[in-house]
Amino acid sequence: MTGAIHKHSGAGVAGDRAVTAPVPVLVITGPVGVGKSTIAAEAAWLLRQADVPHALVDLDRIEQCWPVPADDPENERVSHRNLACMWAITVVRLRAPLAVLHERIRSREASDPDWFLDAATHTAEVFERAQVEDHLVDNENRSATVVAEEVLHRVGWLPSSARGQ
């Protein structure tokens, strides 16, 4: 899963009227087990605390369609197309050592972790080679709050006065 946080920028009114100004999107990505969902949820909480308008979007939900194309069983093309139609993207990749990813996966997928372990190994290698991110943030032995604050400060979405900064 890759999470996206949508932030309103400038014009627009909540409610019935659509936002007409460009809306930046922060994509938090990385391999299975790196903490995308945890950090996205924490970032959304921090933005609420700082009174910064935003929306948390789970990309697993915007790729939902049936039937799934045979050559794209994870429906990634649909997810990417749908996201690209909505907003310009800033990408933050979370990184943790493979041993940490595997430990996290084994602790949460106790019944059958093999698929997740293989996916983490494969995607970690792909992300390291591709380097598609605008920002790279370590997510090993740090609290979700500290990582989320770093993510939001790097992209300029969290005021420096928020959370005692």
Labels describing this entry:
Rossmann fold, 41% helix, 17% strand, five-stranded mixed sheet, alpha/beta, 165 residues
SSE ordering: EEHEHHEHHEH
Which homologous superfamily in CATH is the superfamily? P-loop containing nucleotide triphosphate hydrolases
The residue ranges in which pLDDT falls below 50 over 5 or more consecutive positions are none
Strand content: 15-25%
What's the tally of helices? 6
Strand order of the main beta sheet, please? 3-1-2-4-5
- What is the CATH fold-level name? Rossmann fold
- Under the CATH scheme, which architecture would be assigned? 3-Layer(aba) Sandwich
Distance between the ends = 30 Å
CATH class category name: Alpha Beta
Rg measurement, Å: 17 Å
Global morphology? globular
Mean pLDDT: 83
Sheet with the most strands? Answer: 5 strands, mixed
> What structural class results from the helix and strand content?
alpha/beta
The tally of domains stands at 1
Helix coverage percent: 40-55%
Find the count of extended strands (DSSP E, 2+ residues). 5
